[in-house]
Amino acid sequence: MSTSVTEAFTGTIEFLDLEGGVWVLTTDQGQHYALFRAPQELLIEGLGVTIQGSLKSDMMTAAQVGEVLEVQSFTTQTP
Fold first, then answer.
1. Which helix or strand (DSSP H or E) is residue 63 part of?
2. Long-range contacts of the stretch 35-44 (C-beta < 8 A, 24+)
3. Environment class of residue 53 by beta-carbon count within 10 Å: exposed (0-12), middle (13-18) or buried (19+)?
4. What confidence tens digit (pLDDT) does each residue in 27-39 have?
5. CA-CA distances (angstroms) from residue 4 to 17, 18, 28, 32, 37?
6. pTM for the structure as a whole
7. Between 79 and 73, whose confidence is greater?
8. 60: pLDDT confidence band, cut at 50, 70 and 90?
């Protein structure tokens, strides 16, 4: 069953060249989340962000880099 609770996740956007490529959020704690329904303007390598979203525990990706995070909104971090 999918989790529908919205949470905040802070980290850096990365593109991993696995199984055709996957965009992930790597948190400050080193956790990886595969991004789902991410808007194009979020998909920038090295972008520091806070994402509001929910974990989709009933979904998997071919890359299997971590839990799937459905993006609902995001804000960029100032350097």
1. none
2. 35/69, 35/71, 36/68, 36/69, 36/70, 36/71, 37/70, 37/71, 38/71, 39/71, 39/74, 42/13, 42/71, 42/74, 43/13, 43/15, 44/13
3. buried
4. 989 999 999 999 9
5. 29, 27, 23, 19, 14
6. 0.85
7. 73
8. low
CA distance 21 to 50: 22
CA 62 → CA 34, 65, 71, distances in Å?
Answer: 10, 9, 19
The tokens of 40 are what?
Answer: 């194009």
